[in-house]
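User: Can you help me understand a structure? I only have the sequence.
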Amino acid sequence: MPRSNAPLLLLSLLPLLASAGYDKATKDAANKCCPADYMRHCMQAIEFQLRLNFRNKAAEREATICIQRELYSDDSLNVVSPKTLHCCNVFANDPTDRNNVCFNACQNASLSASIKPTRKLAIIRECRETNRQVKRPRKVNNL
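Assistant: Let's start by predicting it. Here is the structure, written out as C-alpha cells:
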C-alpha cells in the first residue's frame, strides 16, 4: 500500500505558512534591522510585541532601536525605548513592590520594540495602580 506524502508536504510548507501572516511593516523592519539568522525570531517578536532575545546583547539592543525607529519614528526613541531604559530605575528596590513587578514591566515595555510608545507609557504609568503585589498604606478613618 503506497504511503501518502501529504504529511511531509505539509511539514515542508509550515515555514512559508507561518511567515505568510506578517504584514509589510513587520517584514520591512525585520529585513532592515535583524541579522539573517534571527529573522524568524524578529518577525515573531514584532508581530506579538515581545522583546528580542539574542545571544549578542549589543546586536539585540541595536536591532530593538532600529525596529522601533522603523515602525514609529526617531522621536519615539526619546519616549520609551532601550535608550531610556535607565528611567526604569525609579522602580528598583521599591519596598512596596518586593517582586519588582513594576521595574520588570518598565523594562519589558522599554525593550519591546513593536509596542506603540503611547501604550508603553500607559503600561508603565498603570503598573502601580494595577499591581496587586504593591503594598498600599491602609486608609485610616478619622472619627
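Now, to help you interpret it: Residues 17 and 94 are 45 Å apart (CA to CA). The chain has six helices and no strands. Let me know which part you'd like to focus on.
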